[in-house]
Amino acid sequence: MDEIQKNLLREIADLHEVPEGAYNIRSDGEGVARKTTENIDIVTKTDKPGIDIIIKPGTKHESVHIPVIIAKAGLKDLVYNDFYIGEGADVTIIAGCGIHNCGDQDSQHDGIHTFYLEKNAKVRYVEKHYGDGDGKGARIMNPETIVNLAEGSYMEMDSVQIKGVDSTVRVTKGKVGAGATFVVKEKIMTHLSQVAETKFYVDLDGEGSSTNVISRSVAKDESKQVFYSQINGNNACAGHSECDAIIMDKAVVKAIPEITANHLEASLIHEAAIGKIAGEQLTKLMTLGLTEAEAEEQIVNGFLK
Amino acid sequence: MLELRNISYHVDDGKGKDILNDINLTIDDRFTAITGPNGGGKSTLAKLIAGIIQPTSGQIILDGVDVTGMSITERAQAGISFAFQQPVRFKGITVFDLIRLASGKNVSIESACQYLSEVGLCARDYINREVNASLSGGELKRIEIATVMARGTKLSVFDEPEAGIDLWSFQNLIQVFEQMHEKINGSIIIISHQERILNIADKIVVIADGRISTQGKKEDILPQLLNGNAGCKHMAGGCING
After folding, report:
1. Which domain CATH number covers B220?
2. Which of A46, A170, A252, A305 is the most buried (most CB within 10 A)?
3. Beta carbons of B92 and A244 less than 8 Å apart
């Protein structure tokens, strides 16, 4: 593995060495390293590109790393990864995609991740997207995450995309069963002329199901962001979505919330706020001796932390 | 030493209004309290010292250096700290972040906690909290004061530290200032209406209708204020809540 690939791995998966637990590393469209454990199996799909990650019922405190890195300009990579999480398992899954593009052709990774959580399973899913390289070719990522939550299961999805990705359309779909919970925390920062679109569709189907979709974003320069969230309350359930955006320079942010209660006992809330950095926040940090630019940086970093 | 020379502040709101008129003031005491009726120009004066607003005319001199033309940042770096009357909230920035930024160096969690303890907050409960809407007015005030203490500059200006907090919190806050009076090395200016704060000052300055109506040693001024007799007819009853 060369320095570019190692750097991409550090950025997206915080990996400095070979990870502990199970892993599958995909580089430039091919699997390059894999490790399974007694409880976690990883199987290459035969009908289409991608892998099946199968986690045995009752597996506790284990992790799976499945980073994807692309350093070859002009590569278009499409994968289907399916995750089967057994009853009562409690695991952390770290995915992510890093693209280094120093060529003139666009590089693109589209990952379609489907999760099946059995009864009372618990997953923390971390997904980081990162791009670098000084080529003219765009770095494009279009992740799609489909989550099926059986009774009493819990999934928390943390997705982060800070700079470097020129164009992204992120789609997240959740079907939440009885007593199950789906939490999404998304952080996005775009700059230059980047475009990011995120779409959430959550069906709260089971009695006592709940969801909390929280998006924080910063749009700089001439970048554009669209946040779309749709929550359907189809049973006695609780849904909350929140879009909080800082807008800077000539950027554009659009938030389109949609909540539908199809049941008398459905309780749904949406909050959206878009605005520039408050002048008094800058003033306060400047009275501590920071310059205006330093103050702005601290506020943005804190907001996305 | 801070000197205000012929400071005036005029706002052009169509009619034109003089908020401050020809203020001349020298602050070289350890602890100066500025008091006076609401709308008299006290907070404006505090903001002028911190550089948040610029005077229409006059000069501000800090230890012999003219800081009038300096920005907020430059004045902060020159040794002026300012505690806001209404502390600012931040999403994502923690109490520790704020104290670290205030101290201007890589403080340890332990020494940041020390500042929190000094303002009467249980450090362990607060150090990692975000400075956001989940904190009460009283908690924010204390954190604000802790950031000023962490800076440890030669001049610290507090704009009505008692404003917006309940009586119970205020009782504890008073102790913080009483102790700060003993500990801090630089000069403190507090804008306040509270008798107990005025009582720990070395010097009291009364500002009313944009002018200094009287100033002098606490021993001389405080009895006049309490008798409603400090050259400010509004003071009697209305402002002192102690």
Report:
1. 3.40.50.300
2. A170
3. no
Cβ distance A302 to B84 less than 8 Å, yes or no, reads no
User: Nearest chain B Cα to A280, which residue?
Assistant: B88
d(CA A195, CA A216): 15
CB atoms A302 and B82 under 8 Å: no
| Chain A: closest CA distance from residue B59 (Å) | 19
CA distance, residue A289 to nearest chain B CA (Å)? 5
Check residue A21 and give its pLDDT: 86
Chain-chain contact of A305 with B92 (C-beta, under 8 angstroms) = yes
Domain total of chain B: 1
Domain presence at residue B136: no
Lowest mean pLDDT among A235-249, B24-38, B222-236: B222-236
Residue B206: closest CA among B242, B227, B231: B231
Judging by beta carbons within 10 Å of its beta carbon (0-12, 13-18, 19+), is residue A89 exposed, middle or buried?
buried
Match 């998006």 to its residue by tokens. Answer: A215
Q: Are B59 and B218 in contact (CB under 8 A)?
A: no
Query: What does the domain layout of chain A look like in residue ranges?
Result: 3-278
> A276-298, pLDDT tens digit by residue?
999 999 999 999 999 999 999 99
What domain range is B164 assigned to?
2-86+155-238
User: Is residue B80 in a domain?
Assistant: yes
Other CB atoms closer than 10 Å to residue A58's CB: what's the count? 13
A112-134 pLDDT per residue, tens: 999 999 999 999 999 988 888 88
ipTM here: 0.91
pLDDT tens digits, one per residue of B104-118: 888 888 888 988 988
